[in-house]
Amino acid sequence: MSKRFYYGGQAVIEGVMMRGQKTMVTVVRRPSGELAMDTQPLAPIYTGWIRNAPLIRGITVLIETLVLGIKTLLFSARVSLEEEEEEVSRGSVWLMVTISLALAVVLFFIAPLFLTRLLNINSPLVFNLVEGFIRVAIFILFLKLITLMPDIKQTFAYHGAEHKAVNAYEDGAPLEVEAVRKYNTAHRRCGTSFMFAVLIIAIIVFALIGLPSLWLMVLSRIILIPVIAAISYEVTYFGASHTKNSLVRAILAPGMWLQSLTTREPDDSQLEVALAALSKVVEVDQNEEAVQASS
Question: Residue 157: CB partners within 8 Å, gap ≥ 6?
Fold first, then answer.
């Protein structure tokens, strides 16, 4: 019996992307109301052994999320604006990934470090706890601010639709709007929960370094991010697989609460988009499995 595959995706502009075992499907609602669907094969790095190797997979998932996220966002932007199809070069995608990572590092890791240093704290433990508190506060403030943007609110509704669709599928419900409405907009494997885990585990990792010179502290906030991402993914993955445990649920609770900032209750048209993406990616996987079984 093959290992169960867990579907997931992300919200894009006026749409949803769903990731399958070897394929990703993006569905976007055009201004006319029609649905545009884009089906793309995944690169081997996102489907091979490295994607399932403990610790390494956390780093792979982080890269995958950024690369595929930018590709699908660009596609959805073109469709929603009814622009002509243009192929985005690999170099342009990686440039945007690099810029996104750099901004995230500066905002969530470097800025909290310098703000904490202004307080002249000498205790390594207290310093890292305060820095961690500032890091989480900046993250929550960032989420609060972007929710003020009308376009982001719309995207967060699609985020909620994506979660409802996956929750329904994992519960064995039919992938129909009527059956999916009742499901929760939060999901235990959401990227928001993963990001919260990163912020908390960073406190522990940086606390082990103590209070070295400033340049070493800055360097550690950069080079240790893959380590923190790897550990955070394993924690999130373990938690998502053991939700019946009350202690695990308590640990996951803050991350689940944060999803209230990044999701909105979707309407039926948004659910339709998410269900179209999930149904298609499941169909592709089932067809591939049928071909393999018959060969």
Answer: 11, 263, 264, 265, 266, 267, 270
